[in-house]
Write a structure and sequence with these properties.
- By secondary structure, this protein is an alpha+beta fold.
- The chain has one domain.
- It is built from 1 helix and 7 strands; from the N terminus they run E-E-E-H-E-E-E-E.
- The longest helix has 16 residues.
- The protein starts with 8 loop residues before the first strand and ends with a strand.
Amino acid sequence: MRSRLARVLVLVCIAAAATGCSKTLNIDGLETDLASQIDAQLDTTGTSVSCPDDDVKAEAGATFECRATLSTGDTVTVEVKQADGEGNVTWTLGDPAA
């Protein structure tokens, strides 16, 4: 399965929720979208994703990490980079933790 876990880069469009004058990412929506896209990429089901719980400001170029738990039980890091300040992100799936 490791060979199937090559790094991938996919554009994910998510809606950003407005909070006052600044926008924050819809983390719940991002986690759901990432899990679905990882499942599709790896041709599997049952992936769960956990991202930072605190408000993540929508800011072009900003990065943060999420953790994905695959159906095999392997845990991988998901590197998320914001493409713009509107909630569009790209992500890279790392190798399973040893």
